[in-house]
Amino acid sequence: MKKALYELSLMQAQQLIANRDITKEDYLEGILSRIADVEPYLHLFADFDPHVLRRDCSSLNSVSSTVQSNKPLLGIPIGVKDIIDTRQLKTQRGSRAFKGRIAPKAASVVQSIEEHGGLVLGKTVTTEFAWRSPGLTRNPWNLAHTPGGSSSGSAAGVASRCMPAAIGTQTLGSIIRPAAFCGVVGFKPSFGTIPRTGVYPLSPSLDHIGVFTRSVEDAAYLTSFLIKNDGVDFPHHSPLPIPSPLNWSNWSDAQKNMRPPKIALLKTSKWARVSVEQQQLIEKTALHLSQSGADVSVLDLPPSFDCIWDMADTIQFAEAAEINELLALEEPCRISSLTQTLVKKGLNIPMLEYVKAKRKQQELIAEFTQCLRGIDAVLTAPALGEAPKGLEDTGDAVFCTPFTFLGAPAITLPAGYSSNGLPLGIQLANDWGSDAKLLSVAAWVEKALNKIYTPRNLELKL
């Protein structure tokens, strides 16, 4: 049976368009048809204009065929989270305080998408300021459940086949967790790897930009065109080195000779909070990877890492308060009570406590690298279990926070289902700067999982 155009993965669509087996206009119309069918139920978009999309798609025809062949994202529509500035669509940051706002220029990551021929499909729903006050987006696997947050629309949009890829952000767990809840791949590169210029900050010391796709290959392909240094995230005094580009051709070639990786099962001190189903999935995955040739061990982090969750809260609260203090004081009625509480908490944090947390962050980044010597990736849970029921709670980021705090790359892969039929995932991570290695391990794991994990067809119960 012929696959509908909207079901194509990013790489499948890219290759068909490049080979002229389909037109970018036909592909876009397939996506728009899918959106028309499900958007009234899923509420993926904060702003969406098919007329602008069609015009932007047509404008690509004015580019010479030689130039088009050098645009690796030509005609690929990509969802963009609503805290990321775009040129024509509104960026309202999930808040009434910025209703109707049009940004003066596109964010750096959006510029990269457009420079490579990609299209901004629409602005995907976010929680207010990427914090905890949820939007209207629902989980496509069960409309009664949350898609996770804060990158709600991005995760649900990729899962529901309304877009082949989307851009999100993560300050604690806002890429990994919703990707796991919605049964897609979510990749959070190393801190600062994708520039954050033009993205509304929640906590500049923790904010990351990442991608949602339906395969590891798609995630690597898209990310390779978004990585750059625009001089903002890595000034001269930065304690971290400037990230290296991810060369797509080199990475793709390396997969052909990928050896079985060394993977460490990491549970952390929070493991008892994980649901039985999620624990069983992680342990089943570890066993299967070992049987598939991976060298699987157990990693216990030193007690010095047990402070990560408190340190992350200290940094996040303090920085979010500095950013949103005037808004909370001058226009409290236009922001949520959750954001107001966030600001109040941050204003009560002593400066010395914040400084100590920042210093501890740098110490643990270095210590984590030492802990991972001889290990290609760690394996752990991406969330406590399936997506919670209801839209008020977007889930707990407890298993994502350590890697965000450490600026480390992390990726979640769909790997199973709960007894309620909701997706469950696994999370892989490595130390800062090991993005290409992590993606290689993830591609190997994804292939190994194909023997025990069969993705189910998503049937929206509208």
The ordered H/E elements are HHEHHEHEHEHEEHHEHEHHHEHEEH
Specify the CATH homologous superfamily of the largest domain.
Amidase signature (AS) domain
How much beta, percentage-wise? 5-15%
Which class do the helix and strand fractions yield?
A: alpha/beta
| Biggest sheet character | 11 strands, mixed
Portion of residues in helices?
Answer: 25-40%
CATH topology of the largest domain: Amidase signature (AS) enzymes
Judging from the principal axes of the Cα atoms, what is the shape?
A: globular
- The top-level CATH class of the largest domain is Alpha Beta
- What is the alpha-carbon Rg in Å? 21 Å
| Count of separate DSSP helical elements | 15
Poorly predicted spans: none
Explain what this protein looks like in three dimensions.
This protein has 462 residues and is an alpha/beta fold. It has two domains: 5-228 and 243-306 and 355-449, Amidase signature (AS) domain (Amidase signature (AS) enzymes); 307-354, no CATH class. It has helices at 10-18, 24-42, 50-59, 65-68, 108-115, 152-159, 176-182, 216-224, 248-254, 276-291, 308-330, 337-347, 351-371, 401-405, 435-449, and strands at 45-47, 77-81, 119-124, 165-170, 185-188, 208-213, 262-266, 295-299, 377-380, 410-417, 423-429. Strands 1-3-2-4-6-5-10-11-9-7-8 form an eleven-stranded mixed β-sheet, with helices on both faces. α5 links the parallel β2 and β3 (119-124). The longest helix has 23 residues, at 308-330. The radius of gyration is 21 Å and the shape is globular. It starts with 9 loop residues before the first helix and ends in a 13-residue tail after the last helix. 53% of the residues are buried.
